Amino acid sequence: MAKKRQASREIARRIREARKLSGLNQQEVEVEIGKAKNAVSRWERAEVQIDATDLGKLARLFKVSSDWLLGIDDEVEMSEVEMSEVELVRDYRQASPALRAATLAGLQAGLRMERDPSG
After folding, report:
1. What is the total count of domains within the chain?
2. pTM for this predicted structure
3. What is the pLDDT of residues 18-68, one digit of tens each?
4. What string of DSSP letters covers the chain?
5. Are residues 52 and 22 in the same domain?
């Protein structure tokens, strides 16, 4: 019984970690995968076990393997997305609308200069 509880806590920890690295809050995840309010919170606190269908939805949403979420595989592979990119998206989402607009404008200006240095 203790092993099962420990495994449930590990799955809960990994769900929370993947969600945070994805820059999503619990409510956003619930909307994305079509779950009721507080479902993600209950999974993250290991109050209820997640079923295989929902585990697969989370793996796709977070771009990690189901094996990683289950604790079978210790190496997380953020498919085609570097951790720095995930952190950038998370920081962007936390920024104020004004900072988001300024950041986007700066990036677009930089890309234009890079494409046409003579300008």
Report:
1. 2
2. 0.62
3. 999 888 999 999 999 999 999 999 999 999 999 999 999 999 999 888 998
4. -HHHHHHHHHHHHHHHHHHHHTT--HHHHHHHHT--TTHHHHHHTTSSPPPHHHHHHHHHHHT--HHHHHTS------TT--HHHHHHHHHHHHS-HHHHHHHHHHHHHHHHHHH-TT-
5. yes
| Nearest C-alpha neighbor of 15 from the set 1, 2, 27, 26 | 26
CATH code of 60's domain: 1.10.260.40
Residue 36 sits in which domain range? 2-70
Residue 79 has φ and ψ, to the nearest 5°, of -55, 120
